[in-house]
Amino acid sequence: MSDDFHRIxxxxxxxxxxxxxxxxxxxxxxxxxxxGHGQSGYADPQHIVEKLQETVKDPRTHRxxxxxxxxxxxxxQASYYxxxxxxxxxPDTQIVATTGSKEGFAxxxxxxxxxxxxxxxxxxxxPIHSFGFIMSGGVVRSMPADPNEDxxxxxxxxxxHSIPKPIALVLNYPANPxxxxxxxxxxxEVVKYCKANDIFILSDLAYSEIYFxxxxxxxxxxxxxxxxxxxxxSPPCPRPIPCPAGAWALPxxxxx
Length: 256
Fold this sequence. Notes:
α9 (221-224) links the parallel β4 (200-205) and β5. The protein has helices spanning 6-10, 15-27, 46-56, 71-85, 101-112, 128-135, 151-160, 184-196, 221-224; strands spanning 118-123, 139-144, 168-171, 200-205, 243-246. The protein has a single domain, classed as Aspartate Aminotransferase, domain 2, CATH 3.40.640.10. 29% of the residues are buried. It has a 5-stranded parallel sheet, sandwiched between helices. 36% of the residues lie in helices and 10% in strands. The longest helix is centred in the N-terminal third of the chain and has 15 residues, at 71-85.
């Protein structure tokens, strides 16, 4: 029986698996700090640990959740987006709870990708941005990760010279692993272009709450007013953008 699986063979090397032996070797010689895995070096906040313990003891939590996530959680997420970004979301049609933005991206890839579909992904980027589409049979075309003045030229060139035309563009700002950030002018231009060319924007916002200025950065939807897509069984709509994937563990120094 062959253990040579086509979809596994298509995957590029997993960067974390590659550096694990290097870390193990370095650990024997000196102390070092890991900056590349999004993993806190501290214990999780005590009040969060206590709340988890309290919740686990409640028999009502010993059941399967609803497929979209429990209604109270989705309503809380909608309220958060309203307070934080001034963006109004419908918790029943525009929010899905997953076990992390990584799983959300993988599920999104499975939902929208047909074999041979082209997806534009920044390079370098977090592995799931590519892996999810490769596992779903898609074709990944690399884009520059730096949101500078050359980005739009690269995007236009990729769209014009890809056959078939790309179905989606992945964005990740603040970016992992490059730490690039993008302003609202950048998002406005990208959203305008992708609307005109019928392309999804999949925006990984896992690091949206990590910033160093007193004023919190705004969400790209604040200016673009582009509708967000839904992974739930909602009525079909025109190709909407963007689809933000947020995370709650990283901003509060918790291990995912």
